[in-house]
Every structure is written in C-alpha cells, then in structure tokens.
Design goal:
With 151 residues, the protein is an alpha+beta fold. Helix content is 20%, strand content 25%. A hairpin with a 4-residue loop joins strand 4 and strand 5. The longest helix has 11 residues. The protein is elongated, with a radius of gyration of 20 Å.
Length: 151
C-alpha cells in the first residue's frame, strides 16, 4: 500500500491517502509515482498536487527523507518532506533537511537519568531569556502528563 500526500498551494501536506500497490505498479512491476498521482487526481480532484511519501533513502527518486504527515512541507528543490519548524529560534541544518536548535544538540542523558524517567526537552521560553540555554532535563511524567483521553 502506497501513501500519497495531498499538497496545498504552499506545498504543505493537507491530507494523506492510501493507494493500492497494484494501482502504482507499471507494466514492469515497478512503483511509478505518476500512476498514483493520476489515480488520486481521478478519485479526488484534478487540480490538486499529490506526491508519493517515502523515506527510502536508497531510492534516489523517491527517498524523500521523512514520511509526510499533515502539516509537513514538501521542498521541491530537495525533493523531500520536512517537518514544520518546531520553535521560532530554530534554524535549518546546512543540508536543509532538519531543524536545529540555535545552541546545538540536546545533552546526552546518563543511563541513570534515563532509568529515573528523565528526558531532555527544548524550552523556547528559557532560550528567549538566556540565549545560552534552552535544553532542560525534565521528568517524562511532567513533560507528558496523562490525559483524560487515556482513561
């Protein structure tokens, strides 16, 4: 089953749809994105842009870095899907594939910290107060409190 992403005029993913494998296989049995796009346009709308979503980095044509999710952006010149910018202070990495904090990667946690239920999370407010900080070690329980949804 292939997954196709519907893009709006800004190349932002607005929906995803499944397309059966037999629809996108050409006469040689190879995956053909254009067949899936043709199917999606016929099923949904001729005037909508569609892209096959894949993270197969071994595929030079369709290795699109990340599987697309609603809200992701398709970057045409890189032929990839990229997640939305997570925080106002974050910048793109040199290769344009990922977002990076302005102070580098999160500090590594010790095994003891991990076993204690701690996680390292970005705090944009902390960064805005002091541009030398931003990563903080927090309790997973506090960072991801249980919701009434899971009752």
């Amino acid at each position: 089953m292939a997954i196709f992403a519907q893009l709006n005029s800004d190349n932002v993913v607005v929906s995803l749809t499944f397309v059966p494998d037999e629809i996108i296989l050409d006469e040689e049995g190879k995956e053909n994105e254009n067949l899936g796009i043709k199917y999606c346009k016929k099923m949904f709308n001729e005037n909508v842009n569609w892209k096959l979503t894949s993270n197969d980095k071994n595929d030079p044509i369709l290795g699109r870095h990340l599987y697309a999710l609603v809200g992701f952006e398709y970057i045409e010149n890189l032929n990839i899907f990229r997640e939305p910018k997570p925080y106002s202070s974050w910048k793109l990495s040199e290769d344009g594939l990922n977002w990076a904090s302005p102070i580098g990667v999160a500090p590594f946690l010790t095994q003891e910290q991990k076993n204690s239920g701690l996680a390292c999370m970005w705090n944009e407010d902390l960064y805005q107060l002091d541009n030398n900080s931003g990563w903080e070690i927090v309790s997973i329980k506090d960072a991801f409190p249980r919701s009434h949804i899971f009752k």
